[in-house]
């Protein structure tokens, strides 16, 4: 079970940190992903964290602005979002899949087995 939180309304240029709490005993073995879906658009990949500390893939649109991190002791994954833009407005979802996904898999929503309920992020002045 995944529970995302931390969304809200923020002005352009601002920051938010999203959190995703996961239940289960083998969290450290999961690839954790963040995806987002804006109104009228398909769900898109944002970032992923893979077990074992391997490099994290990011969508080109968020590279340098967003950072994904995880705390295996707390079963938590985070998405720090800086320099937010109106185009970042969307519902953000966390997702999980057991095992270390290769980059192409980690960027595909079809690869994930578990999804959180989503948290709304609105970037507007």
Describe this structure in words.
By secondary structure, the chain is mainly beta. It has one helix spanning 103-106, and strands spanning 2-5, 8-10, 16-22, 30-37, 44-49, 66-71, 76-81, 90-98, 114-115, 119-123. Strand 4 and strand 5 (44-49) form a beta hairpin. The longest helix is centred in the C-terminal third of the chain and has 4 residues, at 103-106. The radius of gyration is 13 Å and the shape is globular.
Keywords:
125 residues; mainly beta; 6-stranded mixed beta sheet
Give the arrangement of secondary structure elements.
Blueprint: E1 2-5, E2 8-10, E3 16-22, E4 30-37, E5 44-49, E6 66-71, E7 76-81, E8 90-98, H1 103-106, E9 114-115, E10 119-123
Parallel strand pairs: 2-10
Antiparallel strand pairs: 1-3, 3-7, 4-5, 4-8, 6-7, 8-9, 8-10
Offer a concise description of the structure.
The protein is mostly beta strands and 125 residues long. The chain has one helix at 103-106, and strands spanning 2-5, 8-10, 16-22, 30-37, 44-49, 66-71, 76-81, 90-98, 114-115, 119-123.
Low-pLDDT residue intervals, each spanning 5 or more residues: none
> What is the overall number of helices?
1
The overall pLDDT, averaged over residues, is: 95
Principal-axis shape:
globular
- Percentage of residues in DSSP E strands: 35-45%
Instruction: Count the beta strands.
Output: 10
Structural class: mainly beta
Q: How do the helices and strands follow one another from N- to C-terminus?
A: EEEEEEEEHEE
Radius of gyration: 13 Å
End-to-end Cα distance = 34 Å
Helicity range: under 10%
User: Main β-sheet, in a few words?
Assistant: 6 strands, mixed
